[in-house]
Amino acid sequence: MVSTATQIANFNFDNCLMNAAGVYCMTREELEQVENSAAGSFVTKTGTLEARAGNPEPRYVDTELGSINSMGLPNNGFEYYLDYVIELQNQADSKNHFLSLVGLSPAETHIILKKVQESDYQGLVELNLSCPNVPGKPQIAYDFETTTEILTEVFSYFTKPLGVKLPPYFDIVHFDQAAAVFNQFPLAFVNCVNSIGNGLVINDETVVIKPKNGFGGLGGDYIKPTALANVHAFYQRLNPSIQIIGTGGVKSGRDAFEHILCGASMVQIGTALQQEGPAIFQRVTDELKAIMTEKGYESLEDFRGKLNYID
Ligand code: RRO
């Protein structure tokens, strides 16, 4: 029997596929749709201390090769999502979940994480260090000093399983430097990658999204090679106790297979989920299982990280 089951930090998942934060996860109703699909889990929209309306619309547009967004961190406030994952956790046979969080400042991040630490939530937390779209707020994980400071403080009080959502890096030296930072901490996982920040898509003579004069995060086909490179670069560099979640450009079983081959233990779907809806999880699972069957693989362990190089 071919299985796409997986584990992150001792949490079991029947399927390695799930949504990427930001897609089908703003409301309970959307999260319920992912929960009731073939996905193995869901992650919530990144929650901040207070609810936010986000940037003006249009702020998400599908393109021929993917998507561009500058949502601006709209969310219902982290407690909305915390309450929901605790409610599900208390139901028999619930899936395990990921709670995505970040503050608008390091101080706010610590207030949020301390509340999660004190709460009854026992699941996984994803700290988003890579939102590209809040005007005036740089992506945290491009600043290694600030990232080190935040994580040092976080792990002085936070004892629940925590991972980080990373932006794509584009230079081998940056892979080395970033991995050296993350290897200092007891992270459960890193999630590679968030959207490629600050792209620009034009229709006729005009930008397609309103915020930031059209600059926004790219997802979909544009970003798969960058995502695979980041997954594999961190797979090669991180302590084996830090697992990798692969995100970026997944719309088929073949794409998911490639992420796992590069080292991913779980695979998230963003743009393609937005475009196709939660039925995508069954289709991509079936396609992934067909590839595994053809190759004689029964579990993800049979091929995870086993990317071949040319001698
Ligand atoms: O809300 C957003 O604009 C957003 C976030 Br927080 C993120 O992490 N990645 C993204 O592409 N958009």
Automatic annotation (TrEMBL):
EC identifiers of the protein: 1.3.-.-
Dihydroorotate dehydrogenase catalytic domain ranges (all copies): 5-292
GO molecular function (one): dihydroorotate dehydrogenase (fumarate) activity
Pathway involvement of the protein, from the record: Pyrimidine metabolism; UMP biosynthesis via de novo pathway
Source taxon at top rank: Bacteria
Binding site for FMN: K45, T46, N128, K165, V193, G220, G248, G249, G270, T271
Locations listed in the record: Cytoplasm
Note on how the cofactor is bound: Binds 1 FMN per subunit.
Active site per UniProt: C131
Catalytic activity: (S)-dihydroorotate + A = orotate + AH2; (S)-dihydroorotate + fumarate = orotate + succinate
Described function: Catalyzes the conversion of dihydroorotate to orotate with fumarate as the electron acceptor.
Family: Belongs to the dihydroorotate dehydrogenase family. Type 1 subfamily.
Name used for this protein in its record: Dihydroorotate dehydrogenase
Organism of derivation: Streptococcus loxodontisalivarius
